[in-house]
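Researcher: I'd like a structural prediction for the single chain below. Treat it as a standalone chain; there are no partners to consider.
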Amino acid sequence: MWGIGKPRSKLGKWIDQKGLEQQDLAMDANVSKNTVTKACSDKDYIPRHDVMKKLLKAIRKVDPNLKMSDFWDM
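Model: Treating it as a single chain, here is the predicted structure.
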């Protein structure tokens, strides 16, 4: 099972629930793996707007109905 014992943000919990890999999201979104790791583990991290848009575009390939507010408080 994914994500046992790790601190996870809303994005991290979603990735774990879907059984996805952080590195795959990083490649699809064309952002660094470190950025995705931080976005998945740090509940207080809010990526820059351009990074957020790239991540959301990649996320919507899996679930087209998700919004930025599903992952980050704005």
